Amino acid sequence: MSDPRVTNLAKILVGYSTEVKEGEVVAIDGETAAAPLLLAVYEEVLKAGAHAVMNVALDGQIAAYFKLAADPQLEWISPFAEWMVDNVDVRIAIGASTNTRELSGVPPEKQTKRQAATGELMTRAMKRAADGDFRWVYTLFPTSAYASEAEMSLADYEDFYYGACLADDGEPLSAWKRASEETVRLADWIEGHEEVRVTAPGTDITLGVAGRRFIPCVGDNNMPDGEFFTGPVEDSVQGEVSFHLPAVIGGREVSGVHLKFESGRVVDASAERGEEYLVALLDTDEGARTLGELGIGTNYSIDRGTREVLLDEKLGGTVHMAVGAAYPESGGTNDSAVHTDLVCDLRLGGKLEVDGVVMQEDGRFVV
Q1: What's the confidence (pLDDT) of residue 1?
Q2: Are residues 189 and 52 in the same domain?
Q3: pTM for this model (two decimals)
Q4: Which of 32, 205, 249, 296 is most buried (CB neighbours < 10 A)?
Q5: How many domains are contained in the chain?
């Protein structure tokens, strides 16, 4: 029997997150393990009267690519990918990895070379989104691989994930509107301030936010969602930060990350695990050592780290910082082929201050 939560998630993605309209062109990207959700999304897109373009990767395809591709192939951009970035109205992307570590043996320079090659495509897509010409959303389909990373059984992970997406709600299309009021309130509160300071074990960092916009994330780009973010003033970031939650980035676990910033740039980087790959990411291009995002999590239904940044960056009581590209709609101007989020946990002795006023302490908002 089909899981009704899969149907509800498809309805959320098409009817709420991207608000697909009649006559629009919708790219549906995913992996074969996500077949039930891909089909449900396809059906919802057709019901909306839109044109669906399905793009599904085979299991093991990405591992084969990085194992066998030579430099000219890593640098080649498909005309189809170019057309998609410039022409589709909506992109719905679904991750469904069956092996989250399948790229762990790939030389880091091959991955960073590919990121550099596709960086211009990402910049174009982000600009179209900022201009309102392109809508997108990314989600996951629960697999045993994600459940293993989260140290949960698949059944428990499904309950956890669908609950975080509100796909178990009786009214899935309106659930996120009700759930997002607090995120919008907090984004409105912080708007117009000048400096954010974050302190926690191994962390004391200040970020300038004068003139920048805080964007409330209410399920329109990520599912699940629950954060508000901005692009810090590029040369303002000063201090050091420890990221407490491990993450799987490019098929590698990167954990115990510590970054030191001076005048907005990373001047020292270390990690207990995955340090070589972390440094390679930071050396991808000129913009990779500058912060492109400060995000503050508000989804308290996500109550644990899962090694999946889509979930972990939304975790209530955490902040995350992304080295690399900024989202133009926030006012950030940093340009890079990289956008890598890392999560700092404030629930055990952390504090978030805005122009000297405590906004959050020990992971709970106090304003």
Answers
A1: 61
A2: no
A3: 0.88
A4: 296
A5: 2
Answer yes or no: is pLDDT of 262 > 70. yes
E strand intervals along the chain: 25-31, 51-57, 90-95, 135-140, 195-200, 203-208, 215-217, 222-223, 227-230, 238-243, 247-249, 252-254, 257-262, 265-270, 291-297, 318-324, 339-345, 351-354, 357-361, 364-365
Q: Are residues 239 and 356 in the same domain?
A: yes
Dist CA 140 CA 224 (whole Å): 9
Do 172 and 200 reside in the same domain of the chain?
A: no
Residue 99 has pLDDT above 90, yes or no: yes
Domain that includes residue 91, residue range: 4-176
Contact 12, 165 (CB under 8 A): yes
What CATH number did the domain enclosing 19 receive?
A: 3.40.1830.10
Q: Which residue has the higher pLDDT, 290 or 301?
A: 290
User: Residue 69 pLDDT > 80, yes or no?
Assistant: yes
pLDDT of residue 178: 83
Domain ends where: 153, 176, 199? 176
CA–CA distance, 212 with 191 (Å, rounded to integer): 8
Q: What is the rounded distance in angstroms from the CA atom of residue 117 to the CA atom of residue 110?
A: 11
Contact yes or no for 257/232 (Cβ under 8 A): no
